[in-house]
Design goal:
This protein is mainly α. It is 66% helix and 3% strand. It has a two-stranded antiparallel ribbon with strand order 1-2. The radius of gyration is 22 Å and the shape is elongated.
Length: 237
């Protein structure tokens, strides 16, 4: 293991041990290098690596600080992993995470998030009615809807993971509608929100799971039909 990796592990351990906390300024370079038993060069390399990971924030002329350690920032690299993956296994991970998020949202969602979710549905409706269909606007509304549901789960780590995965997956859709996929997605989103607003976690999980199975089929080219392809429209607005 390189000396810079010693720095990474050492500073991480200081955070875990409570010696450094969110917003704390790191000790002076000479002092910290001595504490970790490394050269200043190795210390700087390790600090740069931790900056890339979202753990440290170096401010010119002011020193280096521990970030807020917000899950969304720390889990940002997940989006890069999502960009690299194109297989069914990765979509299955998204489905597991978002299915649970929908169930939790049914228990925890507040009026503000309900309004934000409905606003995303309204935006989807406007994009669908545009001629030609405004695909980019539709994808943005789709990402917003899933992000609201994830945040409404009340679990910031779960929400950060979903935000890193769902946006990339949604943007892989083809730029033109495929066999009613866009219209079907809108109806499925309405059904998901209806279950959440009804405070029915089991139904919310079912609606989200079948919606994402349908999306997986569209993205991976599967011809397998899902339960949502015959689900009745449920208006949440």
């Amino acid at each position: 293991m390189s000396r810079s990796e010693d720095v990474v592990d050492g500073i991480k351990q200081m955070i875990l041990d409570g010696l450094l906390g969110p917003g704390d300024r790191l000790p002076a370079e000479k002092e910290l290098a001595g504490t970790l038993g490394v050269s200043r060069g190795s210390l700087r390399e390790g600090v740069r690596a931790l900056g890339t990971l979202g753990i440290l924030d170096s401010r010119h002329g002011d020193g280096t600080y521990v970030t807020t350690l917000d899950p969304a920032r720390l889990l940002a690299p997940v989006s890069f992993v999502a960009d690299l993956q194109h297989d069914a296994e990765f979509h299955a991970v998204r489905r597991l995470l978002e299915t649970e998020a929908a169930g939790l949202a049914a228990l925890h969602i507040d009026d503000e998030d309900v309004q934000l979710a409905r606003a995303a549905l309204d935006e989807s409706a406007r994009a669908l009615s545009a001629d030609p269909l405004d695909h980019e606007r539709l994808v943005a509304a789709d990402v917003a809807f899933h992000s609201v549901v994830a945040r409404a789960s009340g679990n910031s780590v779960l929400a950060a993971l979903i935000d890193g995965i769902a946006g990339r997956t949604s943007r892989r859709r083809r730029s033109t509608p495929d066999d009613g996929l866009e219209d079907r997605t809108f109806v499925e989103h309405e059904a998901i929100l209806a279950a959440i607003v009804a405070r029915d976690p089991d139904r919310a999980r079912l609606r989200m799971a079948t919606h994402l199975l349908s999306l997986e089929d569209a993205i991976t080219g599967s011809d397998v039909a899902t339960a949502d392809s015959v689900a009745e429209p449920v208006s949440a607005r």
